[in-house]
């Protein structure tokens, strides 16, 4: 068991700072390729097709890709670009696809999606990245075993599938968070809900920023007929495009639910403030005539009634109580309280 785990870790060890890994595929089995192997001009002719995965941060990557004159200049620039949005472009001899996957690196935010750039023609798939993607590890394991992709189109479809598969759990997490917040708001325990709601909305916005254009890219890719994509590849790509469309709709629904919750919290806050203001207004209305009455009888001038009476104080107290009770009854009849 320990030996098997060691073999899995060795399978992911970079062969070179520029070449993260390379595979020459024959009869659906991928044979590892080293940096020295891909320096030979005719190495691709030995296999049905090849898959080379590069780290754009390495200096040798740009030199190797720029030397591939059969790849269109624009596609070469996109393979080496710093940041690109999901897109798909078709060329005479191949296609370029840029997709995004969730960032599962330790300490990273999943919604900080990592870009993978793909060049695909009949004999090769070249992918580049700047940051680590676990989805690529999934595909590498499949390519190394018999029964993997039989051509470049199937490999691109498999890459799209694995990227999408890794995204789906995080869409579900956002939905679950919204469900929990809705229950909290309905039960009236809305303390700290605002900050949590803002965090969920932020995550949804970041995910949608890339998922919406990725949906368009995969939809266009699935609509390509013939050429690089056989029937199996087209079916797989259509399923992936449908999945990404569904996820984008779920993100939009989560955003709308979050906006409704925000409105509910705002309404609750306004209702609470109105209720408090009503209480203060009622108290002020009750004490206004009482304050006038006590102020009037507190004037220290001659001629004030009751100055010589022993029960005048209690008469004033009783009058104040009667006025307060009368005002309360009046407010209740008017349904102000």
Structure summarized in a few sentences:
Helix 7 (231-297) runs antiparallel to helix 8. A seven-stranded mixed sheet has the order 2-1-3-7-6-5-4, with helices on both faces. It is of the alpha+beta class.
Report on the structure:
With 337 residues, this protein is an alpha+beta fold. The chain is 56% helix and 14% strand. It contains 8 helices and 7 strands; from the N terminus they run αβββααββββααααα. The protein has helices at residues 2-11, 59-66, 73-79, 134-144, 152-186, 193-222, 231-297, 312-333; strands spanning 19-26, 29-33, 49-55, 87-91, 94-101, 114-120, 124-129. It has a 7-stranded mixed β-sheet with strand order 2-1-3-7-6-5-4, sandwiched between helices. Strand 6 and strand 7 (124-129) form a beta hairpin. Helix 7 (231-297) runs antiparallel to helix 8.
């Amino acid at each position: 068991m320990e030996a098997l785990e060691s073999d899995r870790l060795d399978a992911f060890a970079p062969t070179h700072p520029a070449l993260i890994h390379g595979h020459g595929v024959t009869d659906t089995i991928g044979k590892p390729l080293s940096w020295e192997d891909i320096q030979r001009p005719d190495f691709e002719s030995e296999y049905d097709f090849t898959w080379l995965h590069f780290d754009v941060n390495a200096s040798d990557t740009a030199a190797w890709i720029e030397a591939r004159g059969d790849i269109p200049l624009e596609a070469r620039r996109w393979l080496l670009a710093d940041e690109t949005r999901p897109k798909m472009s078709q060329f005479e001899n191949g296609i370029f696809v840029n997709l995004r996957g969730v960032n599962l690196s330790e300490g990273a935010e999943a919604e900080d999606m990592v870009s993978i750039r793909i060049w695909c023609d009949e004999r090769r798939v070249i992918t580049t990245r700047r940051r680590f993607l676990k989805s690529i590890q999934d595909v590498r394991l499949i390519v190394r075993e018999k029964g993997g992709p039989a051509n470049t189109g199937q490999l691109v479809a498999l890459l799209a599938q694995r990227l999408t598969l890794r995204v789906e759990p995080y869409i579900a997490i956002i939905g679950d968070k919204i469900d929990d917040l809705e229950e909290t708001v309905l039960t009236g325990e809305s303390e700290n809900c605002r900050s949590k709601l803002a965090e969920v909305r932020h995550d949804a916005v970041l995910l949608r920023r890339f998922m919406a254009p990725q949906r368009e890219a995969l939809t266009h890719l699935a609509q390509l007929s013939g050429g690089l994509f056989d029937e199996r590849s087209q079916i797989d790509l259509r399923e992936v495009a449908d999945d990404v469309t569904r996820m984008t709709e779920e993100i939009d629904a989560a955003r709308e639910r979050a906006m409704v919750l925000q409105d509910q919290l705002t309404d609750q806050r306004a209702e609470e403030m109105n209720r408090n203001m009503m209480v203060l207004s009622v108290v002020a209305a009750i004490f206004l005539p009482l304050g006038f009455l006590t102020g009037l009888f507190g004037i220290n001038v001659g001629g004030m009634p009751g100055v010589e009476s022993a029960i005048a104080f209690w008469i004033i107290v009783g009058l104040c109580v009667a006025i307060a009770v009368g005002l309360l009854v009046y407010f209740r009849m008017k349904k102000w309280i």
